[in-house]
Queue: 2 jobs
Job 1
Amino acid sequence: QKEVEQNSGPLSVPEGAIASLNCTYSDRVSQSFFWYRQYSGKSPELIMSIYSNGDKEDGRFTAQLNKASQYVSLLIRDSQPSDSATYLCAVRRSGYNKLIFGAGTRLAVHP
Amino acid sequence: SAVISQKPSRDICQRGTSLTIQCQVDSQVTMMFWYRQQPGQSLTLIATANQGSEATYESGFVIDKFPISRPNLTFSTLTVSNMSPEDSSIYLCSVEKGAGQGFSEQYFGPGTRLTVT
């Protein structure tokens, strides 16, 4: 079992729809959770971090964390073609600095 | 966040040679990290570099192949030694910044695209 699992996609959504990206992790002592966006040929860009159960909203983005289910998700409302990218989920264990990355989900938003 | 620069942005090198990648950040940071991202793959941590101490390498990565320097709190270098085509990859540095309430976040530099022929 991979430490951080994501569906590789591609996830295809129409412009204006809600894109839902999911991530599960195996280590129960994981403490911090991150979503990075990576455009083709570019480096990862941090878009959301979440540390406690529940929802965290930032503009069109909402991160959701459920530690009991070991599940973290990212919702993108009013999806735009410019949101088309690979979204990487990353997890950090308690007491460690190291991030464990999932393989990423490719999102395609079509007009 | 942090403003991070890397040099070179890309390079094409011959096998058997070495390349040193520089990473500069606009503010002092304790933790710097070096990652590799092979084509179509996710990120793999090579090593963690703290100023004033030896770098800590992940399983599968050794100091002789990837020597790292961390001379101060804003700069680090990664050398890819005795390169082979399998070293063709994007090399990324990242830094850790405090996010408040005891938490921290990592920010990435623009990356160095290395091709070994």
Note: Chain A touches chain B at residues 32, 34, 36, 42-46, 49, 51, 88, 90, 97-99, 101-104 (CB under 8 Å).
Job 2
Amino acid sequence: EVQLVESGGGLVQPGRSLRLSCAASGFTFDHYGMHWVRQVPGKGLEWVSGISWDSGTIGYADSVKGRFTISRDNAKNSLDLQMNSLRVEDTAFYFCAKQYNHGWYYFDSWGQGTLVTVSS
Amino acid sequence: SFELTQPPSLSVSPGQTASITCSGDRLGDKFVSWYQQKPGQSPLLVIHQTTKRPSGIPERFSGSNSGNTATLTISGTQAMDEADFYCQAWDNGAYVFGTGTKVTVL
């Protein structure tokens, strides 16, 4: 069974940094692209960033480009999101999501999410 | 930028058919996925590659896509289907979600 467990969320002041992590199990981690998707409480879903199985392809939403950095450690089955220069509008639940397969651009498994609150 | 638009809400009676639309420029040229999200839960994939159901998803869920509009159809809607639904497609390196539709079964 695929399991994705996010951690690292919390309350942070605007302009500060936070690092999210996602621990993966139940599948061959280094075969799949991985992503972060966020959701402002009560609002819709927004793709944040994604990374290919070998870290060779990385993408970011325009809203976070230049501030967020995605990375993965295949030896540890983990996915990270380094968030710098945080803004109030970055407040959201952040979900870790597994890409279905190479060349198919959707998500077949999701974590439960971790809440990031950016506030002074 | 590429956008996907859904109706904000939809009400359906138990046993009836719910049709949720998702509109975007030339969406019919793309594969579409649909996610169901119940309160306090993470999204669940219910349709992928426009028409396919993942293992464990009931047959009452089906998908189609033509022109500028994709549709998720729930046939014989049940109370347990009450949730938010999001369409999603991939465009030029970005994953785009629809605005979401709240389906109420009453």
Note: The radius of gyration of chain A is 13 Å.
